[in-house]
Amino acid sequence: MATAASGGRSLPLDMAPFAPSIPLMPPEEPLMSEFEKPPLDVLLSAPRGFCAGVDRAIQIVELALKKFGAPVYVRHEIVHNRYVVDSLRDKGAVFVEELDEIPDDGQPVVFSAHGVPKSVPEAARTRQMFFLDATCPLVSKVHKEAQIHFKRDREIVLIGHAGHPEVIGTMGQLPPGTVSLIETVADAAVFQPRDPTALAYLTQTTLSVDDTAAIVRVLMERFPAITAPHKEDICYATTNRQDAVKRIAASVDAMIVVGAPNSSNSQRLREVAEREGCPVSVLIQRASDIDWPALGAIRRVGVTAGASAPEVLVEEVIDAFAARYAVKVEVVQTAEETIAFNLPRELRPAAA
Ligand code: SF4
């Protein structure tokens, strides 16, 4: 536990906010004196928020802006967080969905942390575009596994969510029709491989650890020869954030997950809290999204953040609680994270 008293609330010592370029709106504060505020324990889940892959992706855009000037094009949201995207846009990033939206002006284009199908860098090379790949190295690891299985003539099953950019990117490493997507236990129960003795599975990096284990169990029971990843594809950040939520979810009246609705790992955190027995588990983007009446009469609340949510938004949420309650913040830490990924070679001098 690491806390420090500050004004009407206790602040965790490990808060390192993402430098905002958009001023934060103060929470709408009810007129209530410190003496009138009901007490509230805030259990702050740790690890939470930015992972090494998200941190690297944001740094790539910021360093590209520093080195090459604006505009820097970014294909797809660099990470799934509107606040981060808006902040980078203010600094000169231009977000596009496809390369054909980018003029031939010689400015760099950055591929998002989720990874891209092979066709995207190929198209960029054809147009002689200068691109920087912010694909998380742990997603690139899954791409490499897919290519190895393909070379070894194994049929590949990808466990993941249809339409998620990471899934599109991983499936796009190989020719169409090569990878079969499985989303649920029911899908796994009816999947018919061409040859059950030449089969391998991979997973999206941001899935529910428990749901994925259930799907893998069904696949292993049905196809005992299936090849598993050497090392878990669900990444350390996803696993650690879910474990931390499990530690506190059953002991709080409500769980607040700060993250975007299109962020897979944030959605999973909300589900994990619900499954662990937390009566109210909500995903919010900003403090202003909190539905106060829906929280009911709370005495203990858990707060966490998805891997793409900056710490400044967690602070905003705690401030909003502090405006209504006499809060005491306790950090509940279940793992230490020390992972950092190298930047692309072209940007290392700019980072020095
Ligand atoms: S959530 Fe995991 S896979 Fe995704 S960017 Fe972060 S570390 Fe990489």
TrEMBL record:
Q: In which pathway does it act?
A: Isoprenoid biosynthesis; dimethylallyl diphosphate biosynthesis; dimethylallyl diphosphate from (2E)-4-hydroxy-3-methylbutenyl diphosphate: step 1/1; Isoprenoid biosynthesis; isopentenyl diphosphate biosynthesis via DXP pathway; isopentenyl diphosphate from 1-deoxy-D-xylulose 5-phosphate: step 6/6
Q: Enumerate the residues binding [4Fe-4S] cluster.
A: 51, 136, 235
Tell me, which GO biological process terms does this entry list?
dimethylallyl diphosphate biosynthetic process; isopentenyl diphosphate biosynthetic process, methylerythritol 4-phosphate pathway; terpenoid biosynthetic process
According to its UniProt record, the EC number is: 1.17.7.4
- Family designation: Belongs to the IspH family.
Q: Which NCBIfam families match?
A: ispH_lytB (TIGR00216), PRK01045.1-2 (NF002188), PRK01045.1-4 (NF002190)
Q: What is this protein called?
A: 4-hydroxy-3-methylbut-2-enyl diphosphate reductase
Species the sequence originates in:
Kaistia soli DSM 19436
